[in-house]
Amino acid sequence: MKKVIGLLTAVGMMTAPLAQAETVTVSGSTSVAHVMEVLAERYQQSTGKNVEVQSTGSSAGIRAAKDGTSMIGMSSRNIKPNELTPKTQKIVIARDGIAAAVNKANPVSNLTQEQISKIYRGEIKNWKEVGGEARPIVVVTRENGSGTRGAFEDIMKLQRVVNGHKVTAIAATAQVGNGNGMIKTIVANNPYAIGYISLGSVDDSLRALSVNNVKPTDANIAAGDYQIARPFIALIDQDTPQNAKLFIDFIMSKDGQRIVAEEGYIRVQ
């Protein structure tokens, strides 16, 4: 009997790693995770293969792909050359706009990029300066390491150089929210707040502003007219297991890209 138990234990120990190996692990950007979770669910339904998606932030996702702790990394910001290895492959799976969003009670419907930058720098502090009520602006930003924040700072020129290093130019008084969900909650509950979130995460709890008189729509982003936009990137190592590569193939397929569009993002093919 002991021999049988020992044999079963040994078999279990041998098959456990195989079961884990069959699961595709994905981690990184909370913005990309929004659509990646849907893609993973549809992929599992059609193939029976497991995909685990974790929202850890773009910087963490890039590191995970680089050091092999995840089969696939996710980033919603551009990636620096020193963050990759020669074996790392970058695949743009979708494109997304970043919406400057306000409370639905706010009468302001359009801002210029310059006005938004000045608001985040703390140079414009009251809504009356941009056509709103005479109320202080409550500035809300994402946490450090967020791909959305990184892309927003880059596009809006919200960085400065100190002692040879780039640092944020966003006012220290800005409130910080972790993830699109928290930004939405803060803005939806404060009529004088402004935040920025993935366009695909915008819902009827708040209102996305036009920027430079251009609405944040898929068509305007695809045409290049709406300027606050960024790629959604999947990162894999060339030695990544085949099951992870098959999941990427699904994402880039006609069915996968249709799901991308259904979730409010812009397909890349």
UniProtKB/TrEMBL annotation:
Keyword Transport among UniProt keywords: yes
InterPro entries per UniProt: PBP_domain, Phos-bd, Phosphate_ABC_transporter
Stretches assigned to the PBP domain: 20-254
UniProt main location, coarse: periplasm
Subcellular location: Periplasm; Secreted
Entry superkingdom: Bacteria
This protein's record includes keyword Secreted: yes
SUPFAM superfamilies named in the record: Periplasmic binding protein-like II
Annotated keywords: Periplasm, Phosphate transport, Secreted, Signal, Transport
Function: Involved in the system for phosphate transport across the cytoplasmic membrane.
UniProt protein name: Phosphate-binding protein
